[in-house]
């Protein structure tokens, strides 16, 4: 069943979750603020409803998660570790496809196949793989959906839950700057702030909590920016990562900076990963669809923010992506 409104989904989702004996909450690889905020926020809401919940994320949490006291409780999956055997419901948040929870997806195929999946998400490329899916593509963040869901359930939200949900709203909207920031997004954020959510701490950890190495990496990436008219792109190579000591998260900084330049329609960051693959992050001007370009390259995302992982070297990835993008923009 695929729901697209809170009204229709709320009773079915509550029935499924309260009937479960043990719920596993998880989200996508390289979890961002919305993945972490929605995992912790939903877990806290469900526990307040009397549910037993375990959180496991596929890879390390982003550094901004330090402002959430529950962050240390989130299990980070390690190969060979087993997931709780008595789980009888898997809830996937902020993720367009279950295949995006690598390495869990490959290592735990049988485990996942044996358990019902419930999906709460806002990605345009979500095809509804669960037995119950709430996919609201107009929502700015999965955390926006959860704020509305708690209201529909008449479930009180405490200050820590509000802070977790604010983290997803703030990060996915780049501090309420992106075009999918709606009156409803701001209303949910205002309600969470009124409930004691620590908005300013979340903002500070996102905007002013960067390591020095990120600034150095950003400088190098700006130096390498290429202006091709409709497309502005740059790269973040392994050499740059090792030379500066910057981690993967510096990529978000670079992507955000690229899209500040007004003259282009689309922006691409090519990030060389340690395993030899290339992760692309695409952004676009309002109304320009890079989500379908990412989808055609085996990735996904939203119209104006999307990505993919390519099993190619940096040069080949660049040729393929830029030519695909040029055709799409023409
Ligand atoms: P990013 O560029 O990593 O910030 O991602 C932008 C958006 O695209 C997010 O909503 C991601 O969930 C989505 N996305 C990024 N990489 C992939 C991928 N390899 N497959 C599917 N969706 C992706
Ligand atoms: Mn996300
Ligand atoms: Mn999101």
UniProtKB/TrEMBL annotation:
SUPFAM superfamilies: DHH phosphoesterases. Residues 22-168 form the DDH domain. GO terms for molecular function: nucleic acid binding. Coiled coil: none annotated. Residues 244-321 form the DHHA1 domain. It comes from the Bacteria. InterPro entries: DDH_dom (IPR001667), DHH_sf (IPR038763), DHHA1_dom (IPR003156), Oligoribo/pAp-PDE_c-di-AMP_PDE (IPR051319). Pfam families: DHH (PF01368), DHHA1 (PF02272). PANTHER family: BIFUNCTIONAL OLIGORIBONUCLEASE AND PAP PHOSPHATASE NRNA (PTHR47618:SF1). This is Phosphoesterase.
């Amino acid at each position: 069943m695929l729901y697209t409104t809170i009204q229709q989904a709320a009773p079915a989702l509550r029935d499924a979750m309260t009937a479960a004996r043990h719920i596993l909450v998880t989200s996508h690889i390289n979890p961002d603020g919305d993945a972490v905020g929605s995992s912790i926020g939903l877990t806290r809401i469900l526990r307040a409803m009397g549910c037993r919940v375990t959180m496991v994320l596929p890879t390390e949490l982003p550094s901004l998660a330090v402002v959430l006291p529950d962050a240390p409780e989130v299990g980070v999956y390690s190969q060979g570790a087993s997931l709780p055997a008595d789980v009888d419901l898997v809830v996937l948040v902020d993720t367009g496809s279950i295949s995006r929870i690598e390495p869990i997806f490959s290592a735990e195929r049988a485990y996942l196949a044996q358990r019902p999946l419930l999906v709460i998400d806002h990605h345009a490329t979500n095809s509804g793989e669960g037995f119950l899916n709430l996919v609201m593509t107009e929502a700015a963040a999965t955390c926006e959906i959860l704020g509305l869901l708690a209201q529909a359930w008449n479930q009180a939200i405490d200050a820590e839950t509000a802070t977790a949900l604010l983290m997803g709203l703030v990060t996915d909207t780049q501090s309420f700057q992106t075009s999918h920031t709606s009156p409803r997004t701001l209303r949910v954020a205002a309600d969470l702030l009124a409930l004691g959510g620590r908005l300013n701490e979340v903002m500070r950890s996102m905007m002013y909590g960067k390591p020095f190495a990120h600034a150095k990496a950003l400088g190098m990436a700006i130096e390498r920016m290429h202006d091709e008219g409709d497309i502005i792109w740059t790269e973040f190579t392994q050499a740059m990562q090792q030379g500066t000591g910057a981690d993967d998260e510096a990529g978000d900084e670079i992507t955000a900076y690229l899209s500040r330049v007004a003259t282009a329609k689309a922006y691409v960051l090519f990030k060389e990963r340690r395993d030899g693959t290339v992760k692309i992050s695409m952004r676009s001007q309002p109304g320009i669809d890079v989500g379908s370009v990412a989808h055609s390259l085996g990735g996904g995302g939203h119209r104006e923010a999307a990505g993919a992982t390519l099993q190619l070297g940096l040069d080949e990835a660049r040729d393929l992506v830029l030519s695909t993008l040029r055709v799409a923009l023409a």
